Hints:
This protein is of the alpha+beta class. Helix content is 16%, strand content 38%.
Amino acid sequence: MNERIVVGAALYDGGRLLAARRSAPPELAGGWELPGGKVEPGERSEDALVRELREELGVEAEPTGRVPGEWPLPGGYVLRVWTARLVSGEPRPLEDHDELRWLAPDQVWSVDWLAADVPAVEAALALPYAAH
């Protein structure tokens, strides 16, 4: 099985969802997404999520559950999302992002989400609050 998977984190802290604004590549710059990245060959998706959040945001996070569904991305990739909680650190944009925002429930749609992330965010928000 040679799947090309990108993992994303619906990272919550105090009921707020973290959104990350892309700075690269140019065709995605300025769009907002759930932080995450590509799963490396032989890597478990949950492990990739933890690694990517460490690399991109400088935080330790713990996946808490899989968001049902998967969404196609350009280049033959598929996006899979997990809810996650912040374990330690304060998120800061280290790679491929130039801004982060913690969004309260009434602010989630105040940013311009990348088209591929919109259904993933909707699915994450549809989970019971206890799942966050």
